[in-house]
Amino acid sequence: MLAVRDRQDRAAFGALFDYYAPRVKGMLMRKGCGHGQADEIVQDVMLTVWRKAAMFDPQRAQVSAWIFQIARNRHIDVIRKESRPMPEELAQEPDAEPDASQVLGMEQEAKQLKEALARLKPAQREMIEAAYLGELSHRELSEKTGLPLGTIKSRIRLGLDKLRHELKGMRAE
């Protein structure tokens, strides 16, 4: 690992990959991942090991602990992304045309949501739009923006709380 960290040694990385990839995959499969999903996570983990090798500190952790922690975090990200609630399908018959009151109600709700989003702080709005409309995980947002993961989570949580407060009466009407 030190050769990878200090000299970007490809042969050393190949040896790391050959040793840890099957072990990481085994751990992921024991946690319930299928073969395909485990392979994808392993590839992502090992790519992270290569890219973030400079962050490895042997005084803080063993190589195995560092790699398995990356794998554990990536697995949690995948689970969170998969369990993100999807919007419910509209309960309509396939050929039924919505009546004017339904169309008007949906347009009003969309307008209220747009206005509430516009009132959010720009940083909160951007994170919410990227997470929910762009379907990015918190970690992907962190990597894309360079912001700490905690900052991403805080902005989304605070923005959603404000939206919830502003739109709480919308469904009751």
TrEMBL record:
InterPro entries documented for this protein: RNA_pol_sigma-70-like, RNA_pol_sigma-70_dom, RNA_pol_sigma70_ECF_CS, RNA_pol_sigma70_r2, RNA_pol_sigma70_r4_t2, RNA_pol_sigma_r2, RNA_pol_sigma_r3/r4-like, WH-like_DNA-bd_sf
Top-level taxon in the UniProt lineage: Bacteria
GO molecular function: DNA binding; sigma factor activity
Alphabetized CDD domains for the sequence: Sigma70_r4
Family, as annotated: Belongs to the sigma-70 factor family. ECF subfamily.
NCBIfam families: sigma70-ECF
Protein name per the record: RNA polymerase sigma factor
The species this protein was found in: Shimia aestuarii
